[in-house]
């Protein structure tokens, strides 16, 4: 067998025992391409790893390995070829084998513990979107008296908050997907902190309305950017649990926000709420600056590319140990990219095209209506409970606890279900295609997994719970028998069920959106927020007027019927979702191929 070429200089590659596989740096790529040989190398001593981290066979020839090797930049060689290079120096020549396709390595090099650290950081940041909204609810009465405006008008500040909360991520999401997660977090928190300082000095309705909008613009993106970070570092197989915990920790704001708001308003006045948010927001920003590394894959790759400048955290010990390659521009799959994505008007508007995809539209519309009804339940709580049960500001804050506790537990519980459902669907896929459990799935096989069914498999149970609880909620608040303080227990229990089932649907909805657009997860989540919050803002603006006109019982009964009428959207996604996804992937692949041909010409 002819020897493979000897490199003219020592390759920048780690040396270990002969027969081990290594990862070459960007500087060695040209030499590696020239080192391709059709001869069969010897058996290897060290285990290989597939995309999901499982071991591949360690004996035999590369031809016996299920996954053919390919070089970077999509230059394809014969199946079974392995790049073999030799290192030369003054003393010796040593051969090592090189796995050149980044896709065949780990999807991300961070350990599970390190991934959890990042999830906790972005979840803490994600607190501020629901917290800033809900901490405000117990203070509506005091704010109304302070600015001498009807409570229905003060409720419009909630509507404005939700409207901006829906629109703002459409700007921040593309920025995050092009310039980086970390820089977007820093920018959005700067806006958020300035808005809260201004709100702390607001003395009239106009300034309150304006700065609440700016506050929403700052806080809203924390959810989409956080989802982007999780999409960067996790595979679909493990993403459900991380997304569930992300939602659960984030939803603590749903639970503790009204309680904190009630306590602060009762003892310090409503302006102190905004100083509290300034302090807490600064703490989160500090944690991000010190510990959160850039994770966007065209900047950080799979965690092995050295970070510089704004992308580099102050403390690097937990990430620098993984740095094996110099800084380079990478695309979403971890391969070398020819150009850095630009943040332009086109990149801002591009995610809106997601809405014209049938699977995305069906997923978003159903989830948005569930979100709207849940938001109307939450926003109308103060007006429905305080006069009926004669509650103080502190007591109003406490009655939001069941809602918040349900959001936290619902997110965590659903995350576990998502991972379990994914494993079950994967097992069924393996059985139907004759693939053993020990054989890692190839990229093509992963793309064929019925993700829609994996994510929606348990949704039907939560939809039934949601419909029944919403229908009963209006009756519980209109029955004279339950008008006393003990009677308050039933509507609060129903609020728990509504929030639990709604959050479960949100979590499944969010995980599916990230799965549908893994390379643009922040933008996909931003579009999700846009549809939800825009529809939710309309609902919150009108719910009190609807209740005043037709009564609470009929109002929520109509809402329950509306969800029943929309369930065919879920069935369509279940039935045709994978067909629609495959058509989109084929269309995008053709478009990329055409663009590549044009670029070569």
TrEMBL record:
Compartment(s) of residence: Membrane
Keyword Glycoprotein included in the entry's annotation: no
GO terms for MF: transmembrane transporter activity
Main subcellular localisation: membrane
Gene3D superfamilies: MFS general substrate transporter like domains (1.20.1250.20), Multidrug resistance protein D (1.20.1720.10)
Superkingdom of the organism of origin: Eukaryota
Residue spans crossing the bilayer: 117-139, 151-171, 183-202, 208-230, 242-264, 270-292, 360-377, 397-415, 460-482, 488-507, 554-574
Disordered: annotated span: 37-61
Membrane topology: Multi-pass membrane protein
Residue ranges annotated for the Major facilitator superfamily (MFS) profile domain, each copy included: 118-578
Family matches, as Pfam families: MFS_1 (PF07690)
UniProt keywords, alphabetically: Membrane, Transmembrane, Transmembrane helix, Transport
InterPro entries: MFS, MFS_dom, MFS_trans_sf
Compositionally biased tracts (Polar residues): 47-61
GO CC list: plasma membrane
Name recorded for this polypeptide: Major facilitator superfamily domain-containing protein
Organism of this sequence: Cercophora samala
